[in-house]
Amino acid sequence: MSQLNNPSQWTTGGDAPTDKQKSFISTLAASKNASVDPDQLNKSEASAKINELKNQPTQNADASAGQPIQDPNTWSTGDDKATGKQMGYVAVMAKKAGESVPNEMGKTEASQKIEELKGKTGM
After folding, report:
1. CA distance 75 to 36
2. What are phi and psi of 46, to 5 degrees?
3. Residue 93 confidence (pLDDT) above 60
4. What pLDDT sits at residue 69?
5. pLDDT tens readout for residues 3-24
6. Number of helices (H) and strands (E), helices first, in the chain?
7. CA-to-CA distance for 41 and 35, rounded, in angstroms?
8. Which of 110, 77, 78 lies closest to 94, judged by CA?
9. What backbone torsions phi and psi does residue 8 show, to the nearest 5 degrees?
10. Mean pLDDT of 117-121
11. Is 73 helix (H, G, I), strand (E, B) or coil?
């Protein structure tokens, strides 16, 4: 088994979880109606908890994804074409908000549009 597949063997596995891990755990826990305090986990445990939560059925489809960890305006790839996931989120929320769906957006623009549409749709 590769070390990547075994977080308990990571050199930094005992360190505090990253902000991205904590954010992802919080989002997953909310969608699974699970009570998890990511601040009580280390990196290795956080990775295992993420895998555990990903494999549980979603209980709360209305759970919010939370705020972005970084300001999209500072992304080095912000001008790159938006990802498929971003465009998918924009399309679903724009339709729900009664807005037209843009054909193309950059990553930063898409992230900002998602935040705007979250406010309009409550998604």
Report:
1. 29
2. -65, -40
3. yes
4. 58
5. 556 766 778 888 999 888 888 8
6. 4, 0
7. 13
8. 110
9. -65, -15
10. 85
11. helix
- pTM of the predicted protein model: 0.50
Residues 50 and 25 sit within 8 Å (Cβ to Cβ): yes
Q: Please state, in angstroms and rounded to a whole number, the distance separating the CA atoms of residues 71 and 111.
A: 10
Q: Is 29 exposed, middle or buried (0-12, 13-18, 19+ CB in 10 A)?
A: buried
User: Which burial class, exposed, middle or buried, applies to 2 when counting CB atoms under 10 A from its CB (0-12, 13-18, 19+)?
Assistant: exposed
3-state SS class at 78:
coil
Q: Kindly list the distances between the CA atom of residue 21 and the CA atoms of 26, 27, 44, 102, in Å, as whole numbers in the listed order.
A: 9, 10, 10, 31
Q: For residue 87, what are the contacts with CB-CB under 8 A and spacing of at least 6?
A: 105, 110
Residue 6: both structure tokens together:
């075994």
